[in-house]
Design goal:
The chain is an alpha+beta fold. The protein is built from 6 helices and 5 strands, in the order ααααββββαβα. A 3-stranded mixed beta sheet has the order 4-3-5, with no helix packed on it. It has a two-stranded antiparallel sheet with strand order 1-2. β3 and β4 form a beta hairpin. The structure holds zinc ion (2 copies).
């Protein structure tokens, strides 16, 4: 039994071949796919799987916090199996989403914000926007 199966069982999710396939697809692909992308990539392997099944599966994985759901301003949400804190670098041209695990020194901004707002800040979520290498090359 691999750790993906164990994670599903630990969260009381029934281990079905489709659920396991969707979860491992998210673990293996760091492109932060939408439900539509997951469905298109897995439908050859699971011809009977519906788009609704993929929606339901990512929702249940998200509810038990095995994956994260986020939106970069598109119609569809993106999904990420990397649940540790990290930032995203988003291309404004092709909407690709990459991970950034580097350290961002936010302490000064957090201090400022706490002083201004009276909040105790315990988490933050940062997106960077720009143009990716691939899109830059296509501009020539
Ligand atoms: Zn791009
Ligand atoms: Zn990510």
């Amino acid at each position: 039994m691999n750790y993906l199966t164990e994670n599903l069982k630990a969260n009381k999710l029934k281990v079905t071949p489709q659920r396991l396939a969707i979860y491992s697809y998210l673990v293996d692909n760091c492109n932060h796919p939408t439900v539509e992308t997951i469905y298109n990539d897995l439908k050859n392997m699971f011809p009977t799987m519906s788009l609704a099944t993929v929606y339901k599966t990512v929702a249940s994985l998200r509810d038990v916090k095995l994956i994260k759901e986020f939106n970069v301003g598109e119609d569809s949400n993106r999904y990420d199996a990397k649940i540790e804190t990290h930032s995203h670098v988003i291309c404004k041209k092709c909407n690709s989403v990459s991970d950034y695990f580097g350290n961002i020194d936010m302490q000064e901004s957090i201090n400022d914000l706490e002083n201004l707002s009276g909040f105790d800040i315990d988490a933050y979520d940062i997106n960077f926007y720009g143009v990716c290498n691939k899109c830059k090359k296509q501009n020539f």
